[in-house]
Each structure stands twice: as C-alpha cells, then as structure tokens.
Design a protein that fits this description.
The complex is a heterodimer of chains A (404) and B (169). Chain A is mainly α and 404 residues long. In chain A, 51% of the residues lie in helices and 12% in strands. Chain B has 169 residues and is an alpha/beta fold. Chain B has a single domain (2-140), classed as 2-Layer Sandwich (Beta Polymerase, domain 2), CATH 3.30.460. Classes of the chains: A mainly alpha (404), B alpha/beta (169).
C-alpha cells in the first residue's frame, strides 16, 4: 500500500490541476470598474494565467448606428464611454466631416479642444480617485470628485447635460457657450494646479501606495506595441506617441504642450504620467480659453447643419432645411474613413463607411481599453493576486467602451 | 460590362500605385507581393489596398518590416447582397512615419475565412474574435477563436446586414 502511494505521488505533484485553482474575479467586483470578469488561475497567491471575459455591457451600439441618420448617431457615441463623452462626439464628428469634406470654423475647433481637455481632466480625476481607492487610499476619491463636480457643472451650463453632453455636432458645436463660461472655466483652471499638488501630496509620498505600484504590472515597450496598447500605458512604457502632437486634428497643432513619457513601465509610471498629463491639459485648456477666436460656431452648410432657432422662425429656407434634415437626414458621399483621436485612455478611432445615403452603412469604434485589456495577462502573470487590482486600475478601464 | 469595369478598376489601381510609388507601404508591397494587390484606392487622404485573401499574412509582414509597426484595428463590413460579401479591414499605423494605411481582404459568403494575423501582431487576437462573433468570419490559425462580446449560446451574427436591428423575437 505504501509503495503504491509513492508511485502515484509524483503524478499528483506534477499535475497542474491539483496545484492551481481557478478563481473568478468579477463580474461583480468593486475593483473591476463595471462588469469585467477575470478568470484567474492561481498557484497559492501567484497568478499563473489570466483570461478576461467581457461583453456583459454589450448593447450593439454599432448595429444601432446603422439604423439612424448621421446626426442621430452623435448621442449614441456619448453612451459608449461615459467618462469621456466629448472625445467620442469629437471623433465621430471628425470622421463624418472628413467624409463630407466639411471645414469647421476655427471658433468651433478651439471650443472642441477646450472641452476635450476638460473632458480629459474629468476622466483622469475619476481614474485617479478610483485607482487610489482600489489601493486603499480612500481620501483622494473625495477630493477628485470635488473638482470633477465643477467640471460637470460647466458641461451642464455649456451643453445642458452633465455627462451625456452630445455637444459636438457634425459641422461644429451645438450652442454658443453661456456668458459666465469664461470666468467659470478660468477660475477652475487657475485652481487646478494647486489641487493636483494636493492629490500628489496624498499619494506620491505614501509608502503603501508606492509599494503597491512600483515594479508592479510591468509591460515592456515591445509588448505594448505588439498588443495594441495606446495612450498613457504606452507612454509609460517609453514610447513617445501622442496623436494630439503627432497626427494633430481639430487645430491641436496650434497649441504648445509637452507629452510626458516614462520608461519605468509599471503602475507607478502610469500614475505619474497621468498626473503630469492633467497639468498639460490645464495648460492646453488655458491656451484655448485665452485665444478663443470670435466667429461662427457652426459650418456654413445649411443642408447639413441645423439652422439657428431665430433664422428658422423668420426665413422660409431655414425652415425647409430644418425640416429636411430632421425628417430625411442628409446624404453623405460614399467612401470609407478612419479617424483617430487621443482620448483619455489612448487611441479612439471611428471607422465610418458611407454608401451615399443618409444613414451610415457601418460605424466601427476602435476603443483604446479593448486592446489594452489584452495586455493584462502580460502585466499580471507571475505576480501576486493583489497586484491584479493595481494593474486593472492602471489601464483606466471603462467597460462601456469595451463592450459597446 | 463586367470585364470593362474590371479593366477600368485595373487602370485605377495602376494609376494609384504609380502615384503612390514612393509611399513606403506601396513600395514594400509592390516589391514583395505585387501579384497580391488586387485594388488600390487613395481617397480623402487615406490609402486603401485590397489584398488577395490568402496573402494577407505576407502583406502584413511586408508592411510591418516597412515601418508600419502598430496594428490599430481590425474590423469588417458586410456588403450583402453583393458578392464577395465581407470586407475585412486592417488599420495599420506607423509610429515613425506618422502615417496610416488600410489593408482590406474580400471574403466570400460560401467560405467566410481568412488567415489570422495574430502571429504578426498579437493585438489582432481580440479584434478577430470580435469579427468572428459579430460577422461570422473565421480566422484560420487563431489561438482562441470564440465569441467575445456575445454569450456562447447566442445564435446568428448580429452585424450581418440580414440580421434585423431589433433582433429575432
């Protein structure tokens, strides 16, 4: 009997099935930021394999787009990424404007830059608060949401909505900003650098936060490029690439800003980099506010852009155009375009195919965290289970845009 | 009629290839797999090259070595009821050249399959799964070709044009 046990013993030890266990993290787990399910194979507390399971929030937005007029797709794009709605609006509008070969007035372009940067600040503030909270630093969350509240109030004043703004429209922006817009934004931008110092005071010297993030979730530059990683995680791996600077859109080439890059490749580097990015965003937004040109906010294209309310009430043509756009949409010349912008999370791309009718034939959204999620295995394998939480937080995951 | 249009397509293709001869991707592809280029378009500042279906792996390796180092996106368009029905589109970016190209492959409905390019860019993994899930195009040699967004037991491919927007009830 004893001999038999010895003979069978090695087989038992070698079998991975008995050494490791499968652990489900999510879909209902506070640190997965939504409904991400990670199937983890762990050996004791060391991660052996990670398999992300996504799709819990899939609503078929791409299919819905095909049934709508071009202008009706704009509010759908907000709902993909609820933390950076304006980036989605911008990317879609730029793609359709490229198909239409429509020139947008300078004032609208600068307003788009200004609000895009406020959106980035909004998104990074939520990221910073929740990421720190995942790692046990609860206070930062409250401070971040304090500033975010003011940004959302500005969005409310500008667009009439706090989150699902739909402010950018094909051919420009929907409304002229309110009278106190300048003062409010300036006050916010003036106060932000101090507030960012405050967050850094809470985290950068915090030994727990440092130990949880330094040398955790390592991702080399080669792996990052091979796996399609973009945005802050790519720049934190030492690749100097930012679409705002390298392939400018919406007159970003007229702004001076630095692109922070780090070669540390870890969660800490992604934190440092995003905080630096917030400071740069404040600079860009300040430049946009200072130099905001006067002029029209919508392109002069009566068959595409809705007329002003006043014109509609006094001019028959404006009323006809309004009626036509709302009931029949507008035809877009056939073609295929891919337009990419730098969103808070990386390269957001819209692939829009037109067959010459008033409804898009196909709208595909290339969302940054969908690709970045593939790198989670590289970041986590061989590390402790608790580091998975830090790694997920560091890629700034938004499940809405992954699942669409 | 058919032959006339295909002949003019051929002329268009040659004109675009000649005009873009010093474009790094065009140069690499005309050198390494000239017979695989079926069509070329330059529209709204975007270069689209349609490749032979079985040569997509070679084409990707050729443009990768020409400096197009980053696979941004893989997706599909359903041209139902036209044949070939599916157009699989690969958006590839070069960090050094600051340029994008689009490679396309036309896939017939009778055998909706393409070779996977996960060996060239591992990033294609999720994207190809998404195309498989929503269009039903299979990718040969893919390491884990399963549905990604929809549940395993889901029937049909919702982004096909013959799938109703409201779904089946």
């Amino acid at each position: 009997m004893a001999e038999l046990e010895l003979m069978t013993a090695p087989a038992v030890v070698e079998s991975d099935q008995d050494r490791t266990m499968i652990l489900n993290m999510g879909p209902q787990h506070p640190s997965t930021h939504g409904v991400l399910r990670l199937v983890l194979e762990i050996d004791g507390e060391v991660v052996v394999r990670v398999a992300p399971d996504i799709g819990y929030l899939h609503t078929g937005i791409e299919k819905t787009c095909e049934a709508k007029f071009y202008q009706q797709v704009v509010p759908l794009t907000d709902r993909i990424d609820y933390l950076s709605p304006m980036h989605n609006n911008l990317c879609y509008c730029l793609a359709v404007e490229k198909l239409l070969e429509l020139e947008v007035p300078e004032r609208a372009q600068w307003l788009r830059v200004l609000l895009s940067e406020l959106t980035r600040l909004n998104s990074h503030l939520v990221w910073l608060g929740t990421h720190a909270m995942d790692l046990g630093a609860l206070t930062v969350f409250l401070y971040c949401f304090r500033e975010r509240e003011e940004i959302l109030r500005i969005f409310d004043a500008v667009a009439g909505q706090r989150m699902m703004t739909s402010y950018f429209r094909i051919g420009g922006v929907s409304l002229e900003p309110p009278l106190d817009f300048h003062d409010r934004v300036r006050k916010l931008l003036k106060s932000l650098p101090e507030k960012i110092d405050e967050y850094e005071n809470l985290l950068s010297g915090n030994p727990i936060f440092i130990n949880r993030t330094k040398n955790v979730g390592l991702l080399s530059a080669e792996d990052a490029i091979a796996l399609g990683v973009t945005g802050p995680p790519l720049r934190a791996s030492g690749v100097d690439w930012d679409l705002r600077r390298d392939m400018p859109y919406s007159s970003y080439e007229k702004f001076q800003f630095k692109v922070p890059v780090s070669t540390d490749c870890d969660v800490w580097a992604r934190y440092v980099l995003r905080v630096q990015e917030m400071r740069e965003s404040v600079k860009i937004a300040t430049q946009a506010l200072d130099g905001l040109p006067e002029g029209r906010i919508k392109a002069d294209a009566p068959k595409i852009v809705l007329p002003d309310r006043e014109a509609m009430k006094t001019q028959m043509e404006a009323l006809i155009h309004h009626f036509k756009i709302v009931t029949e949409g507008f035809a877009v010349p056939a073609g295929q375009v891919y337009q990419a912008i730098e969103s808070s999370r990386g390269e957001m791309g819209y692939f829009v195919v037109s067959d010459g009718t008033a409804k898009p034939y196909r709208v595909h959204m290339r969302n940054p965290t969908f690709a970045t999620l593939q790198a989670i295995e590289k970041m986590c394998v061989g590390r402790l289970l608790a580091d998975v939480v830090a790694a997920i937080g560091s890629i700034d995951i938004v499940l809405g845009e992954i699942d669409r | 009629m058919e032959s006339v249009s295909s002949q003019s397509d051929q002329e268009d293709k040659n004109a675009v290839l000649a005009a873009q001869a010093d474009h790094p991707a065009v140069a690499a592809l005309t050198q390494q797999c000239p017979d695989a280029i079926l069509d070329a378009k330059f529209d709204r500042n975007e270069l689209t090259l349609t490749m032979a279906r079985e040569r997509i792996g070679d084409a990707c390796r050729a443009v990768q070595s020409a400096g197009y180092n980053f696979l941004a996106d893989v997706t599909c368009v359903d041209w139902y009821p036209n044949q070939p029905r599916f157009q699989v589109a690969y958006h590839i970016l070069s960090h050094t050249l600051k340029q994008r190209i689009r490679l396309c492959v036309l896939v017939d409905e009778s055998d909706p399959s393409v070779d996977s390019i996960t060996s060239v860019w591992p990033a294609a993994n999720f994207y190809e799964r998404e195309v498989f899930d929503l269009f039903g195009v299979r990718f040969g040699g893919h390491p884990n070709l399963r549905r990604i967004l929809l549940p395993e037991e889901f029937r049909g491919n919702p982004l096909r044009k013959d799938f109703p927007v409201e779904g089946y009830r």
